[in-house]
Amino acid sequence: QVQLVESGGGSVQAGGSLRLSCATSGRTFSLYAMGWFRQAPGKEREFVAAISWNGASTNHADSVKGRFTISRDNARNTVYLRMNSLKPEDTAVYYCAAGPGITTLDYWGQGTQVTVSS
To answer: Rounded to whole angstroms, how far apart are CA atoms 38 and 61?
Structure first.
């Protein structure tokens, strides 16, 4: 089994930056793809970014390309989401996910709140 714990959320002004972290437990972490999703009040959960098991491949949603960067440190069993140039529309609860592949992310964390003020 895999357990995920997000951290690093908070409140920032538009144009600011945050780095989210997702600490994982489970011996298979280094073989798992990882992803970030977010959900704003009244909206559906949406894809943000994903990274392959070895970090060789990444994918970012069009809405965050050029601003957000997903990365991972397998030695620390941690995945990151660096968020720059934050916009009010980025306000959401951000969730970390893991699974055998980018399209099969079966494990989820509890989420961390990101609030961007204008």
So the answer is: 11
d(CA 4, CA 94): 12
List all residues 6 or more positions away from 72 whose beta carbon is below 8 Å from its beta carbon. Answer: 34, 51, 55, 78, 79, 80
What distance in Å separates the CA atoms of residue 14 and residue 22, rounded to the nearest whole number? 23
39-69 pLDDT tens trace: 999 999 999 999 998 899 999 999 999 999 9
pLDDT for res 75: 86
**CA angle, 8 then 21 then 108, to 5°:** 110
- What tokens appear for 96 in the block? 């970390």
